[in-house]
Amino acid sequence: MTIFRRHFIKLQLILVIAAIILGVYYPKIWEQIRSINFGKKKTANGNLSTENYSGLLLTKEQLNEFNGVGGQPIYLALLGRVYDVTRSEKHYGPGCTYHFFAGRDASVAFITGDFKNYIEDEADNVLTLNSPAILSLINWEEFYKKDYIYKGKVIGRFYDEFGHPTKYENKFRTMAEEAEFDKFNREKLRDKYPDCNIEWSLEKGSHVWCTESSGGKERNWIGYPRKLYGLQNERFRCACVKEEYLDTNEVVIRPYENCASESQECYYNVN
Questions:
Q1: Is residue 250 part of a domain?
Q2: Is 232 found in the same domain as 123?
Q3: pTM above 0.90?
Q4: What distance separates the 2 farthest-apart alpha carbons in the chain?
Q5: What domain range includes position 219?
Q6: Are 155 and 227 found together in one domain?
């Protein structure tokens, strides 16, 4: 019994020491484990290879190695998510039209089309874009999700070193939801206030008029041409407005100058 007690005490002591060591060195141990490039190995030229592994966490520098040069796979990142586009080498390979996107996250260029001026710190800064541009990026994201293999995430603006979404990523997704809601509301307004027919001639200037199908919206009423202003009250479109909505407070509408209030067509000149 005494021998057993001694062994038990020794075992307890070992466990206590192990717990202390783990408590002190756990962060460092975890950092070492996290730094191991699972699924990666060195190729003959010393570059990284990922083979079929999906779920990578790549730094910008590591992502840059997958640019198709020297037979490397071709990856691009959009909104911090990495896709393998190697099978479309004729588009993304060296010397090809979209090689600009290879090995980097240049999300903003999907909207601007600027393939010449690359500023790394701003290339994925998408929060400065307007609502239609944000929705366009979401469409691009759906395209890459559908047509290409997802490989992982870029450590940086959208995801942290553990692959968790950052505040920036959460903000972008919130803005995308708001943009979708705005789009829905605009479409509802276009159903209620459809576009006018529009033509222009040198002799008469701009001609706007309403019919039962103007704006591509079939209906059983015609309406009256009015200027319908956007939220900033800076730009307007010609909308056909039903008589019962001519005094609405839902949107800002203004009559065309030198046009009878009950006329279904108007002429005006743009200075």
A1: yes
A2: no
A3: no
A4: 115
A5: 193-268
A6: no
